[in-house]
Amino acid sequence: MRSEVEKTVIRLNSGSKLPVLGFGTADFPFDRLKVEFAIRTALQLGYRHFDTAMIYGSEPAVGGALMEAIRSETVSREDVFVTSKLWGCHHHDPVSGLKQTLKNLGMEYVDLYLIHWPAKLKEWANYVMPKEEDFGELEMESTWAGMERCLDMGLCRSIGVSNFSCRKIERLMEHASLLPAVNQVEMHPMWRQKKLREFCGEHNIHVSAYSPLGGPGSPWGTKAVVDNPIIRSIASKHKATPAQVALSWGLSKGVSLIMKSFNEERMKENMGALEVKLEKEDVLKIDKLEERKIMRGEFLVNASTSPYKTIQDLWDDEI
To answer: Measured between alpha carbons, how far is 70 from 108 in angstroms, rounded to an integer?
Structure first.
């Protein structure tokens, strides 16, 4: 199983190879020792793709655990794939934001750097829930130019976006010298992103799924996916778990998965999704489930200072 995980990769439009199973490190409330221990365990099991972000506060833990493994020659730097993300307070200067991320990680580069959300915040707003006075005027053209500079400077190997609708990527393409390599979005059997996947596929932009199980362990998540009777029935048929069925469905759509569990047995269970082969009828049943987006981004919506006066503005009616 470990070798199977390590060799299951996707080649991005940048030429980089992204491991299809990613290990998420967002933890609220954050516990550095717990995160570092989980990363060490994940490395032993065969995970090689680690997802963090400045706003998670987990960059020092991710960097500490990975660099310890690199120094001990458990893995080489080239063996691991590290993703981090630009928070809104650094949209004015992505190079500065990424340099701070690299300092936090103790690394010379990240493999993938994403714009976390399409929202610019004032420089002081380095926290999760921005206030009305924290919003700045959205200037995605200059922000993306800064992301391209990060790439040119060798601070990252690939650049991309997160939580972008089709329309927002279209607008980005109007001025971008380089297309995003990745769009990381919420995706699971009850929020399937069909339109977005088709759009990104047409432009060779890889879709990476966060909360591929619906975020059952997060403060904002739900167990609706793993408790769904159709998914449970398919799991029973394949002698698999509901989580493995949900993850296998995601893999069948050609996306990579950012999975977050710090429980060793769950980590192993999630890796087992690679061995679950759904039949066409299973996928069709899942594709008919009722949809509802869980991470809606309400914290970026307000009627006065945000560029997004409504949820529909944020998602361009793709919700």
So the answer is: 13
What ranges do the domains of the chain cover?
16-315
Is 56 considered catalytic here?
yes
The 10s digit of each residue's pLDDT in 263-300 is: 999 999 999 999 999 999 999 999 999 999 999 999 99
CATH level 2 (architecture), domain 16-315: Alpha-Beta Barrel (3.20)
315 residue type, one letter? W
- Write out pLDDT tens, residues 186-243: 999 999 999 999 999 999 999 999 999 998 877 777 899 999 999 999 999 999 999 9
Residue 112's DSSP bridge partners are 83
Ligand-binding annotation for 91, yes or no, is: no
CA nearest to 20, candidates 209, 228, 239, 284: 209
Decide if 111 contacts 98 (C-beta within 8 A).
Answer: no
- Of these residues, 56, 113, 210, 308, which one is catalytic? 56
CA distance 149 to 244: 39
Distance of CA 113 to the CA centre of its chain: 11
Which of 286, 206, 274 has its CA nearest to residue 240? 274
b/e per residue, 173-206, with b = 16+ CB within 10 A?
eeebeebbbbbbbbbbbbbbbeebbebbeeeebb
The C-alpha atoms of residue 260 and residue 243 are separated, in whole angstroms, by 12
Q: For residue 305, give the DSSP letter.
A: S
